[in-house]
């Protein structure tokens, strides 16, 4: 059994009746890391949002099977509780919500309250020490006034702390300098070691160089058009999407 099976998924933007996903098929096994690469505007973020259950999108047909269960009708919160987490290409700023409080309450919503706040804070501190961020990172409001790089570190901190079964990273590498890229890649590897399956959406091969990639998928116009191993990322970088997609 796979962790995630996306079957012939078609989906639209609800308000505009605009069809974006046009038959996505994707299987991700337990502990695997898959990369999706594709041009801007092809619907990669939409795929992530539809898997997560963002209510702005409507599934027209097809299935999203997670641990053997079709989750298409579930809310985002229910999917989060089942162990799906996504990081955003453009992370939200939530004024008035302290980052540390946000983390703790998100953790308890998903995992319950068997661990004490002291235990959880200790885990957060360990991750923080690896992230290289300013001392007051957690005392600030969530992502408010964070630099681009800090927002990406904030997202990866949430991902590591919340221990999802499936982690979707939407352009976590965009806008990162070399040092931050290495730190974020290192966190992704640690998340992976804990058993999490990962779907990483990216434009660039450079982050994949740090990771152990099981599969690369080329995604254009709302569907996966080609899949292969890491060498496909080389091919994309050399020749561009259009040549590969045919
Ligand atoms: P990608 O992540 O591959 O760049 P997106 O999924 O962000 O692509 O967007 C695909 C297309 O769908 C774009 O043309 C985008 O403008 C449109 N789109 C996505 N989400 C919405 C939305 N909520 N409202 C209107 N248009 C949307
Ligand atoms: Mg884009
Ligand atoms: Mg996108």
Structural overview:
InterPro entries: AAA+_ATPase, ABC_transporter-like_ATP-bd, FeS-cluster_ATPase_SufC, P-loop_NTPase. GO terms for molecular function: ATP binding; ATP hydrolysis activity. With 246 residues, the chain is an alpha/beta fold. The protein has a single domain, classed as Rossmann fold (3-Layer(aba) Sandwich). 36% of the residues lie in helices and 29% in strands. It has 8 helices and 12 strands. The chain has helices spanning 44-52, 76-82, 99-111, 117-131, 148-162, 178-193, 231-239, 241-245; strands at residues 4-13, 18-28, 33-37, 57-66, 69-70, 84-87, 94-98, 141-142, 166-170, 197-201, 215-220, 223-228. It has a 6-stranded mixed beta sheet, with helices on both faces. The protein has a 4-stranded antiparallel beta sheet with strand order 2-1-4-5. β9, α6 and β10 form a beta-alpha-beta unit. The chain starts with a strand and ends with a helix. Residues 13, 16, 18, 20, 38, 40-46, 56 line the site of adenosine-5'-diphosphate.
């Amino acid at each position: 059994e796979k962790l995630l099976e996306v079957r012939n998924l078609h989906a639209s933007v609800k308000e505009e009746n605009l069809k974006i996903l046009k038959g996505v098929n994707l299987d991700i096994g337990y502990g695997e890391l898959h990369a999706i690469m594709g041009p801007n505007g092809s619907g990669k973020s939409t795929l992530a949002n539809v898997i997560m259950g963002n209510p702005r999108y409507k599934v027209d047909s097809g299935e999203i099977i997670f641990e053997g269960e079709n989750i298409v009708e579930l809310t985002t919160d229910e999917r989060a509780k089942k162990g799906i987490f996504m990081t955003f290409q453009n992370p939200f700023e939530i004024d008035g919500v302290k980052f540390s409080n946000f983390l703790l309450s998100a953790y308890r919503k998903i995992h319950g309250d068997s661990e004490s706040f002291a235990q959880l804070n200790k885990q957060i501190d360990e991750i923080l020490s690896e992230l290289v961020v300013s001392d007051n990172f957690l005392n600030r409001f969530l992502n408010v006034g964070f630099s681009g790089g800090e927002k990406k570190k904030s997202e990866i901190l949430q991902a590591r702390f919340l221990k999802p079964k499936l982690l979707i990273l939407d352009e976590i590498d965009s806008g990162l300098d070399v040092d931050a890229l290495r730190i974020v890649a290192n966190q992704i590897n640690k998340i992976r070691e804990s058993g999490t399956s990962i779907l990483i959406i990216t434009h660039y091969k450079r982050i994949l160089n740090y990771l152990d990639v099981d599969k690369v998928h080329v995604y254009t116009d709302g569907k996966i058009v080609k899949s292969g191993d890491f060498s496909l990322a080389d091919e994309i970088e050399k020749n561009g999407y259009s040549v590969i997609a045919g």
